[in-house]
Amino acid sequence: MKQELIQLICEKSFKYSREPSFKLVSGKMSHFYVNCKPTTLSPRGMFLVGHLVFDAIKDLKADGIGGLTFGADPMAVATAFVSELKANPINAFSIRKTQKDHGIVRWIEGDMNPGQRVVIIDDVVTTGGSTIKAIERARSEGLEVIKAVILVDRQEDGLENIREHVTDVTAIITRDDLMEQMVRSQNK
Fold this sequence. Notes:
The chain has a single domain, classed as Rossmann fold (3-Layer(aba) Sandwich), CATH 3.40.50. It is built from seven helices and ten strands. The protein has helices at residues 2-12, 37-40, 43-57, 73-85, 129-140, 158-163, 175-186; strands at residues 14-16, 22-23, 29-30, 32-34, 64-68, 91-95, 108-110, 117-125, 144-153, 169-174. It starts with a helix and ends with a helix. It is an alpha/beta fold. A six-stranded mixed beta sheet has the order 7-6-5-8-9-10, sandwiched between helices. It has a two-stranded antiparallel sheet with strand order 1-4. It has a two-stranded antiparallel sheet with strand order 2-3. 39% of the residues lie in helices and 26% in strands. The longest helix has 15 residues, at 43-57.
């Protein structure tokens, strides 16, 4: 499944340029651009991501999985769906980018309660800033963050930065995996 997901990401979500021509959230220019949404919102991508993320967390006894909207949302929903299929239900939740200012003022949407054990996910990590923000917001709502799972690690120290906030951090796919696939495809 992992190799198929790498291929799918290369087809739908990964761009490379010899010159740094992609502007990142940080403002820095990069040779690489990864937008996982075309993959995570596709039927096959959802299937693969849901199974691979579930496999990475199935033994943790997590109550929930989620992260900062919008990148984490399709991943959380796919994983929750697979968790039900595997008779090991894990709730999906979403963390807002801006706090709701009406009704019950919360950062988190979903059926989660203080004290529950959660996994924070993100689709792409460069510096880890968005994932760290999600970890902090989940903790501010009383959730116990037990792990972080990243779909694509750009290998620019993001995982190390996240480990300062939660020690158990895993990436499903790395930039090197994507580059290897791109080279293999070009050599065919």
